[in-house]
Amino acid sequence: MPLMARLMRQHHYNSHLSLKDQDVHPGQPPVLFELSRHDGLSQRELAAKMRVKAATVTVMLNRMVKNGHVERRPDPNDQRIQRVYLTDKGRAAVHEVREALHASEAYALKGVTPEERMLLRRLLLHMFDNVKQYEQMISRQTKEGRTDAESEMD
């Protein structure tokens, strides 16, 4: 397994291990963070922002409702739409998750000099830009591939 993947997997595992007592399970921190930025999203909006299927969000939210982190409320303008809101326990969990992630990152950077941290940050930002560009390229190719296939059917 490539080094970056191993690092990310271990960081993810450590973070979730430290959150066991808060009833925060794998996959839930992004939900908590998204709702802390945009409380009251519909399940469909939440799925789109997280880039996952609506069914995946539904399963996560069912568990989070059961644990008391979020609550669903009908949209006041459209009763067919369920909006998702953080509860007080959910807002506290956002804080706990942030602390756990910061602690894990601090531990990972133990012994790394400030200069090395700046270089690492620069490299990671560069890599992030590259990955985003790659995503756009793949997305265009996929759309072009579909368009070609659709045009062949005509």
UniProtKB/TrEMBL annotation:
<dbReference type="GO" id="GO:0003677">
    <property type="term" value="F:DNA binding"/>
</dbReference>
<keyword id="KW-0238">DNA-binding</keyword>
<dbReference type="InterPro" id="IPR036390">
    <property type="entry name" value="WH_DNA-bd_sf"/>
</dbReference>
<dbReference type="GO" id="GO:0003700">
    <property type="term" value="F:DNA-binding transcription factor activity"/>
</dbReference>
<keyword id="KW-0805">Transcription regulation</keyword>
<dbReference type="InterPro" id="IPR000835">
    <property type="entry name" value="HTH_MarR-typ"/>
</dbReference>
<protein>
    <submittedName>
        <fullName>MarR family transcriptional regulator</fullName>
    </submittedName>
</protein>
<keyword id="KW-0804">Transcription</keyword>
<dbReference type="Pfam" id="PF01047">
    <property type="entry name" value="MarR"/>
</dbReference>
<dbReference type="InterPro" id="IPR036388">
    <property type="entry name" value="WH-like_DNA-bd_sf"/>
</dbReference>
<feature type="domain" description="HTH marR-type">
    <location>
        <begin position="1"/>
        <end position="129"/>
    </location>
</feature>
